[in-house]
């Protein structure tokens, strides 16, 4: 999740820091939405990767190639802009974990049509 002051608390959480670095090293998926992708940037996990975040916070995506898109998938990292992109973000996570067919099935079940 993102938002404030939650994102500031995430940034200071030692356990989360260890978990993120472990997941990144082991190529496990990491997903962050709203302001939370800035945590990944400030921890150096976005260097050379494409990413997005809440509008106006892009300068905190340190080392990232900032993309103005609702959802960005780059290797094992999935980032998204915010609440208005949460369904697309969720479907991107399902697609990564379970495949395109599972994401399409879920979208149909919730009567969602992407723009």
Tell me about this structure.
α4 packs antiparallel against α5. The chain has a 3-stranded mixed beta sheet with strand order 1-5-4. The protein has a two-stranded parallel sheet with strand order 2-3. With 115 residues, it is an alpha/beta fold. The chain has helices at 6-12, 14-25, 37-42, 86-98, 100-109; strands spanning 30-33, 50-51, 65-66, 71-74, 77-80. It has a single domain (6-109), classed as 3-Layer(aba) Sandwich (Rossmann fold), CATH 3.40.50.880.
Question: How are the SSEs placed, and which strands pair?
Answer:
Elements (H helix, E strand, L loop, with lengths): L5 H7 L1 H12 L4 E4 L3 H6 L7 E2 L13 E2 L4 E4 L2 E4 L5 H13 L1 H10 L6
Parallel strand pairs: 1-5, 2-3
Antiparallel strand pairs: 4-5
Helix pairs in contact: 4-5
